[in-house]
Structure formats: C-alpha cells, structure tokens
Amino acid sequence: MPPRHLADLDLAGRRAAVAGLGDKEFRAGQLSTHYFGRLIRDPQRMTDIPATARGRLAAELLPTLLTPVRQLTCDDGRTRKTLWRLHDGSLVESVLMGYPDRVTVCVSSQAGCGMACPFCATGQAGLTRNLSTAEIVDQVVWFAGLAAEGALPDCPDRLSRVVFMGMGEPLANYSRVTEAVRRLTEPAPGGLGLSARHVTISTVGLVPAIHRLAGEDLPVTLALSLHAPDDELRDELVPVNQRWKVAEVLDAAWSYAARTGRRVSIEYAMIKDVNDQPWRADLLGRLLAGRLAHVNLIPLNPTPGSRWDASPKPVEREFVRRLRAAGVAATVRDTRGREIDGACGQLAALADERAAGDASAQSRSDEPRRGPGANASRSERKAAQ
Ligand code: SAH
Known about the structure:
It is built from 13 helices and 12 strands. The longest helix has 16 residues, at 133-148. By secondary structure, it is of the alpha/beta class. The strands form 2 sheets. It has a 10-stranded mixed sheet with strand order 1-2-3-4-7-8-9-10-11-12. Strands 5-6 form a two-stranded antiparallel sheet. Bound molecules: S-adenosyl-L-homocysteine. S-adenosyl-L-homocysteine binds at residues 115, 117, 119-120, 165, 169, 202-204, 225, 267, 269, 298, 300-301, 303, 344-345. S-adenosyl-L-homocysteine is lined by residues 115, 117, 119-120, 165, 169, 202-204, 225, 267, 269, 298, 300-301, 303, 344-345.
C-alpha cells in the first residue's frame, strides 16, 4: 500500500498523527484546510505553518500519491482524462467532465479489475490492487483544484459530483471506498464537503456489499450494472451473476432504495444483437415497473478487438420506448470522452503504458483516437485470448 496520507485519516486521526510527530495538534486542522478547503498541496504556500514544520508535516501527511503521466483533453477542454502513476508503478485513470451546470469526476477505485466483464476494457487486464482511501480521494481533490482554477471553459468552478465508474469494482474495495466517501462528504477541514447524493457508486452487483452499504448511513446513489434482464445472458456479460442472480441483485437494489430513499440507477450497455432485443426491453420493463429506479442506457463503447458493437440508434430508441411504455424512466447516457478513450468502459491504463513511455504530462488531444501503441497492445492481448 502507498504511504499514509492525511486523506486516509479522519480529523481526530490526523491530530493524533501530528502529535505523534511532535507537532501541535492544531496543525492537523491547518494542513487539512489547505488540502480540502483551499485545494493546496504545495507546502511552500502554507504560510500559516512555520517553515521548519511545513516540510516535515507535508512529507509525513501529504506524500505524493498520484503522478500525472499523461493528460488528454477533448470537448474544448471540458473533458479531461488523466493517467496516473501510483507509488508502486501501477497505473490508473480518472476523467473530469464539465457541463454548464455541474462538474463531475469519474474516479478509479482499483488498479485493474477482477470482475472480468467481457465488454469492458479494464476487465480484460485483471486486478492489480486496491487503491487506498487517499489514492481515491486525491483523484477528486486534484481535479477539484483544476476546476477551481477555471480550467473548464463555461463550467462552474466547483466540482460537485463524483462517480465511481472508472477502473475497478468499488464494492470489492469496500472499506477504502466507503472511507473515501466519508472524506468526500465531510465538510472542510475534515473533507471536501460534497453532497452524498452527488456521489454515485457503480457496482456489478456484489449483493452482500450492497446490503452493507445500505446500512452505512451514507446516502450515496447506487448504480447497478445490470446489462441483461435474464440470467442466461447476464451470466456471460457480468460473470459475477453466476454467484448472485438477477432476482437477487435486484432485491438488494430495492432494499437499498427503500433504506436510503434514493432512486437506483440501472446501467445497461446497449450491445447490438446481444442484449438489445424488444423482448429484453419488455422483460426489463416488467422487472423494474413500480420500482424506485431509472435506466441509464449506455451506447456500447467497443473495446479494440471486441466482437461486439453498439446498438443502432433506431434499436436504442425502440428499447427506450418500450421501457417508458412499461412506466420505467429511461435515458441514454451522453458518452463524453470517446475520442480520448475516456468513455465508459474504455479505461485501460495498463494497455496505455507503452504510449505513456515519455512520462511527460501533456495534452494529446490532437492525436487520432486509435493511436499506435496503446491500442495495438490491447488488441494483441485480445487476439491472444
Ligand atoms: N465496476 C463497476 C464500475 C466501473 S464501470 C461497475 O461495473 O459498475 C462503469 C460502467 O461502465 C458500468 O456500468 C460498466 O458496465 C460500463 N461499461 C464497461 N465497459 C463498457 C463499454 N465498453 N461500453 C459501455 N459501458 C461500459
């Protein structure tokens, strides 16, 4: 695991850590105000802390966890993907998306992922390791700083939403992810002060963890990656379904909704001729009718070498029409960041390693989408399977 960082600890833990270093406890509050309140991490700018203490405290409580290796932008700078190198060389990605009314960051909770969904780029590489609480929080704080500098044209300068839809299965890294949510939602200087309603945890459907999350008193939005309404197909698309079936995972979702009062988001990647048939829309409609749920259809972002494609628009429209006819709310998700491989399911940092060899942080938005290097290695790996 990476070195300890103040975002791993609550305020009391930070005070104890500072006291353990022989410093005055209130310095923990000062450091926290810089990091969470002002989004400052450079010790030289923390002028209310004596210069002698600054370096030591920063080294102990604000170690560098994420080094940007590569940054890509599109949508006139409103979508930004960053590839980070972690202290042990693992690579993860996060994506910042600016809209006229909100700024959202999509964070990774693990390096790689062990859930092996066959249509997802991250799923192809397997799990490297869990991220620490601070490695998750720091992705958000870093982007919150960027937004505060006005880096996103015509967007608010306050980051307001976090979605755990980057690399990894958040509920497979349960304690660090829930701790990260506490840090993100505690008011400054304890944390970033975001609204829990504006934090979304997306899961393949780890049923015991969904029940546990419902009891946490963290009313985050739950997104369930369903992708098929029947076990036969879901066993293939979301292999964890072999353990927890559609009926069971939906029961867990409904108890989450009942417990938190929060509408569950049902994620459904539209895959041509695989899960987009009218009968599947009708079946999904019957499963969801009358429930506190909303369907988010995601046009499939085909991973290189994949045998699957996105559903044609008329098929997608008919799917939406049938869901709505069943009384189920459904929308098609905006696929931000496609041209920088930053859209849903495209994050695959391991495959980007070769392309990131120059190790310099730079904008590559001028490059063609399927550049050499990264994608070649991905398709090679696919072909080898
Ligand atoms: N492991 C979590 C979160 C990560 S992925 C989960 O599975 O929910 C976030 C969403 O993107 C999930 O709904 C996932 O199924 C979807 N996704 C993955 N690959 C995709 C692809 N190639 N095209 C469209 N959506 C994809």
